Amino acid sequence: MKGLVAPPYGKGPLAEVVPSLLAGFGVPGMTDVLGIAGPTPVCLLLVDGLGWQLLRDHREDAPFLASAAGGPISAGFPATTATSIASLATGVAGGEHGVVGYSFAVDGELLNALRWHRHGVAESVDLRSVLVPEEVQPRPTAFERAARAGVDVRFVVPREQRGSGLSRAVLRGGVVHPVLGLGDLVARTVEALGERTFCYTYHADLDTLGHVYGPGSEPWRHQLRFVDRLAELLADNLPRGGALVVTADHGMVEAGDRIDFDTEPALRDGVRLLGGEARVRHVYTDAPDDVRVRWDEVLGERAVVLGREEAIAAGWFGPRVAAHVRDRIGDLVVAMRGTAVVVRSEVEGRLSALVGHHGSLTEAEQLVPLLVSTGSV
Question: Angle, to 10 degrees, between the axis of helix 218-236 and the axis of helix 205-213?
């Protein structure tokens, strides 16, 4: 697959981060695959959208992060927030936890997993009562297992994430500390770090500015400087012997060639539902062979189009795919190469207008940092 890289599941993906850290707390069943277990307490800071290549390209804007120990790991597929946070929280890939993209089919609904709303419709339809988050993702989380072993698990997250569908699906097992901005994010995290605490802290704004202005743009670089200072503040306020671990959920590319599903009859013909996002699409169809021929003709070298079973066999969704997850994966799975995107100008107008996108299997999207700093105060 020229220009694409399959995630190295079992050899250092994002799903191994929390189990590796919890091995340092002695949580049963947790193994330090990544070699990062050690000091406690731990603050795991997830910076949404901080790709490894972007960090290296703009290291002068992030001197603290650029000098921290560590290197790149793989986000997993699709390289998108909902899937990555589910993988981080459960310790398994999308094929097992079942959050297989930004949007995907579940029980006849097209679920937007970030908002837990019906995707592709003008009105906002909350699906939490129809697609109960704890049932859509029923696996025990690594955080729940840690709490049962006596670890004090805390979540420092934006206020709007408290009680959200995705939080209910994957951020189970800890106490939520909702925050409004960078100031109380630092304060709540520092307050949370007791002797046997695992604190998951999330920051979203870098991703937002990458989407709106483009990764590497001037607004994005200014935000990266704030993120670098955020990480430095957290590291400076760690308890003696504690650790700050910084990672991300995906990288990002600036969209180049835009192919519009809503205005291209050859792409629409025979498609029942279209999930995913601009860089990776789940295509649901009753005629996969015919639809695949048309998508291949339109997209050519700009994408790899695989059937569901081929994508599973290629390991895109991890080493195992649970029976109840298989139908959530598109009959066809489309991974974009280069900077091409498949947008929906009519149905996904706001998303289609974004500059930055992610989700596919390029190194720019797949590689994220795993950085460790230890406290001395």
Answer: 170
CA angle 369, 373, 377 (to 5 degrees): 155
**Distance between CA atoms of 181 and 195, rounded to whole angstroms?**
25
The DSSP element (H or E) to which 26 belongs, if any, is none
Domains of the chain: 14-254+362-374 (3.40.720.10), 258-357 (3.30.1360.180)
* pTM metric for this prediction: 0.96
228, β-bridge pairs: none
Give one word for 101, left, alpha or beta, with left for phi > 0 and alpha for psi -120 to 50.
left
Instruction: Identify the H or E element spanning 168.
Output: helix 165-170
Nearby residues of 340 by Cβ (< 8 Å), 6 or more positions away: 255, 256, 257, 258, 259, 299, 302, 303
Would you say 49 and 207 are in contact if contact means Cβ atoms under 8 Å apart?
A: yes
Question: pLDDT 10s digit of each residue in the chain, 377 long?
Answer: 677 888 887 777 999 999 999 999 999 999 999 999 987 899 999 999 999 999 999 999 999 999 999 999 999 999 999 999 999 999 999 999 999 999 999 999 999 999 999 998 888 899 999 999 999 999 999 999 999 999 999 999 999 999 999 999 999 999 999 999 999 999 999 999 988 999 999 999 999 999 999 999 999 999 999 999 999 999 999 998 899 999 999 999 999 999 999 999 999 999 999 999 999 999 999 999 999 999 999 999 999 999 999 999 999 999 999 999 999 999 999 999 999 999 999 999 999 999 999 999 999 999 999 999 986 54
Q: How many CA atoms lie within 13 A of 274 on its CB side?
A: 24
Q: In what order do the strands lie in the sheet with 367-374?
A: 69-74, 367-374, 243-247, 42-47, 197-203, 152-158, 175-179
- Angle CA(148)–CA(176)–CA(116) in degrees, nearest 5? 100
